[in-house]
Design brief:
With 327 residues, this protein is of the alpha/beta class. It has 2 domains: 143 residues, Alpha-Beta Complex (Quinone Oxidoreductase, Chain A, domain 1); 141 residues, Rossmann fold (3-Layer(aba) Sandwich), CATH 3.40.50.720. Helices cover 27% and strands 28% of the residues. It has 9 helices and 15 strands. Helix 2 packs across helix 3 and helix 2 crosses helix 7. It starts with a strand and ends with a strand.
């Protein structure tokens, strides 16, 4: 048996169990590239998987972890050879395909992209799916033609992983960033990332009006539900909102008013199945645009044997910024 350490979720009569244990390489799933994983990360979806709070995991046993970075150990894929540094986000890894909370992973090479030149694997996982999703949101707003001189941008769930990176990216690009958070204690943290104004989560969680006062030309929403509906109702004429999260719920108690009376556009941002060209564009921009000093201030690093306990923390909104997992 060729074994390695992995966090394994198993289904039992009492529910699910999660433990760090030996895993046989022969039990890895099909793929033409085997990666020696060096780092992973913790996203909201990972928290759902680790705790069983939502049916994220669709096969058992499962190694969770929707992200990983590492070095190719063996490959029959034309695009990768042993020694190549790679990164993976999404594609059902950690949900239907064995994921990144392990010392090894085997995946189809088409799911991988090359680690951006000069970027360390721990930096890539400090960014992770959260940061990559934040950049996809920024790219959508830019494609819409929005620029900082048109007005401020709102970021909801701003102290979380996606929100933190979005605030940093938008502030560096010259935007006046309005950061919404339910944690007043994080005001200094968000201002350090570049936020110009901090508003309370309650400002966006009340009753939704069809149209509210026009406050921002753009928004990155990480929350969904009433928060997204209120963000839409207060977006200026011709603006756009990039929606990527559902921590507040999957419903959208809105109306058509913002869309047909103010010409608002709502962009749905999917990071899991995004095509390679879009992924590579996002990672190239992250490598050039994200301030390493600001990123370092968002990071908490934990070893693999401590990641299980972090699942409930992120669901409870107690995780600031990004958690990097050292494999």
């Amino acid at each position: 048996m060729t074994g390695f350490r992995a966090v394994v979720i198993e289904k039992t009569d009492a529910g699910q169990s999660v433990a760090l244990k030996p895993f046989d390489e022969a039990d890895l799933m099909a793929g033409d590239v085997t990666v020696r994983v060096s780092h992973s990360t913790l996203n909201y979806k990972d928290g759902l998987a680790l705790t069983g709070a939502a049916p994220v995991v669709r096969r058992f046993p499962m190694i969770p972890g929707i992200d990983f970075a590492g070095v190719v150990e063996s490959s029959s894929h034309d695009g990768f050879k042993p020694g190549d540094a790679v990164v993976l986000n999404g594609w059902g890894v950690g949900e239907t395909h064995l994921g990144g909370y392990a010392e090894k992973a085997r995946v189809p090479g088409d799911w991988l992209i090359a680690l951006p030149e000069g970027m360390a694997p721990e930096t890539a996982m400090a960014i992770g799916t959260a940061g990559y999703t934040a950049m996809l949101c920024v790219l959508a707003l830019e494609k819409h033609g929005l620029t900082p001189d048109m007005g401020p941008v709102l970021v909801t769930g701003a102290a979380g992983g996606v929100g933190s990176v979005a605030v940093a990216l938008l502030a560096k690009a010259g935007w006046e960033v309005i950061a919404s958070t339910g944690r007043a204690s994080e005001a200094a943290y968000l201002e350090g990332l570049g936020a110009s104004e901090i508003i309370a989560r309650d400002d966006l969680s009340g009753k939704v009006r069809p149209l509210g006062k026009e406050r921002w030309i753009a928004a990155v929403d990480c929350v969904g539900s009433t928060t997204l509906a209120n963000a839409l109702s207060m977006t200026r004429y011709g603006g756009a909102v990039a929606a990527c999260g559902l921590a507040g719920g999957m419903d959208l108690p809105s109306s058509v008013a913002p869309f047909i009376l103010r010409g608002i556009t709502l962009y749905g941002i999917d990071s899991v199945m995004a095509p390679r060209a879009r992924r590579e564009a996002a990672w190239a921009r992250l490598a050039s645009d994200l301030d390493p000093a600001l990123l370092s201030g968002m990071i908490k690093t934990v070893p693999l044997d401590e990641i299980v306990g972090q699942g409930q923390e992120i669901l409870d909104g107690k995780v600031r910024g990004r958690v990097v997992v050292e494999i």
